[in-house]
Amino acid sequence: MTARAEVSHPEAAARFAADEPRAHWHDQALWFVRVKRDRAAAQIPEWERLRELAQAVKAHAMANLAGYLETFERNAAARGAVVHWARDAEEHNRIVHGLLAERGVTRVVKSKSMLTEECGLNPYLEARGVEVVDTDLGERIVQFRHEPPSHIVLPAIHIKKEEIGELFHEKLGTAAGASDPKYLTEAARGHLRRKFLEAQAGITGVNFAVADTGAVVVCTNEGNADMGTALPPLHIACMGIEKLVPRAADLGVFLRLLARSATGQPVTTYSTHFLGPKPGGELHLVLVDNGRSALLGRDPFRRALSCIRCGACMNTCPVFRRSGGYSYGTTVPGPIGSVLSPAQRDGAHATLPFASTLCGSCADVCPVRIDLHHQLLAWRQVLVRGGHAPAGKTLGLKLTAWVLGSTWRYALAGRLARAAMRLLPAGLMARLAGAWGRQRDLPAPPPESFRDLYRRTHGRP
Amino acid sequence: MAARDDILAALRRNAPAGPPRPELDGVGARFADPPAQLEQAVTAVGGAFLRVPDLAAADAALRALPIHRDARRIASLVPGVGAPTVDPATVTDPHQLEGLDLVVLRGALAVAENGAVWIEGSSLPHHALVVIPEHVAVVVDAAAIVPDLHAAYAALDLPGRPRWGTFLAGPSKTADIEQSLVIGAHGARSSTLLLVG
Questions:
Q1: Using a CB-CB distance cutoff of 8 angstroms, which residues of chain B are in contact with residue A296?
Q2: Residue A1, pLDDT score
């Protein structure tokens, strides 16, 4: 999907975790959001029923996606929107650039869209002389730093306010040393207000597209999608084809779940429903496949297409919280990213499904009940069978299977291990225990195995 | 439209069997005192809440607030509420709305569970009126309270709507700097709900 270089998760995670205070701070910041999500979910007695409905609506929509897309296209066109189809990222970028170029647009404001990140739209447009300003505050911060977002909902969650203060001092002329979030946000508001007023077009993502009305729904707290589309005449909304829900009534389920799952709010400040262009303006909808139709054909991985991009699985994931979004090297990181990214091509992002303890917390908080930890396990099986697991892991598994494959080999291995733990220096043993032993002391070896104990107390089995 | 046909063909080829479209029954919030719940929800999303008996009282209450008292440029989409200085219907380019201090909006319905108010696109000449001013006040009929979003969508009949509409819940906000909540990101810095009746 993107041009981003693939990352080895364990190596990148080790670099992130090396700065212990910072890793701890990151962990706490995300846990804070997870706790807010729990409080918000607990206020809805029928929360679990809503999740079941959301899952069922999505499963139904995905099974009938072609028909719903045709209905959506017909209804959107009847309202005056122009619908475009893109097979891949390149086609998407070409369509968007074509729309801008035909109208001589060189200044664009954009609200948050993971799809345009996935497609690499910003560098594509910038290389062709179009200024693209990301208007979500977090996205503007990472754009100033020439970084991608590290989290799909909280793009700058990895950056400290002092660092943002320095950045804004350099880019926006804020006072040196100032790091008050209110002061910095105010500076960004003034800066971006000028960008909104100068923009010739607004690009947005899409949270939900509704087949029975041809509407697209865009949710923000800042109001940047509304500002970016209310002023210039041209609005381009870019969406993955999986964003579709059948009916406007279904939005009731999804909007009750989305913000509560994402940030613990009952609803985003602005949930704007676009139904055709503004008077004298244009609305273009770009529907992008980029691997989604292929994923639809892969059981069990197709369920990942139900994702509504709330980020709850990232906030709760003990691995994400301690390794940071960049350790995944993908537009969508965390548990959902780890099941979406390996689908890109055979052997892609092969370390990501292993970046999990399979604790299942991600699946528990997912508002559309994607069985994330089962999918992570299923990906491991696919990757190991395909020869994409690291050599050390493959060898270790083969050795384990060989040892566990016979009674006497297993008994002998236990005897050898107990002897080694007694006789060898602790430092050497820790190294033999691999990654597990790096930060842990090995337990004292038991004097005898369970088999010996049983034989001693009960006689030969 | 080769891309369109390719995508639709691939989706049809790869479509799994799926469940029928679920009926959305068995869900829906119920509140003993909807206006009280609405007040709590509006306050929770950072908005201000005032309950008044009629439009004249809404007007008086609004004029007494600093957002009106200190405003120089005011637009009102609710006749009789606020003292407008700008008629947005005469503005052709929404860029000219920059610098508005206060806009009085009409809310078509209010959602008790989450404090959101539906602003119907056809009730105002420019979408920008919702986000561009420093402050907004929204006038809603007490009879137009619905318990939750399911009831809201049932009441709205979205397929019949023109152009656009938005659920507005409180003032513009962000927490993108170290999760510190800051009110007033790009849109209005305050949002006051005037519940009438």
A1: 10-11, 14-16
A2: 40
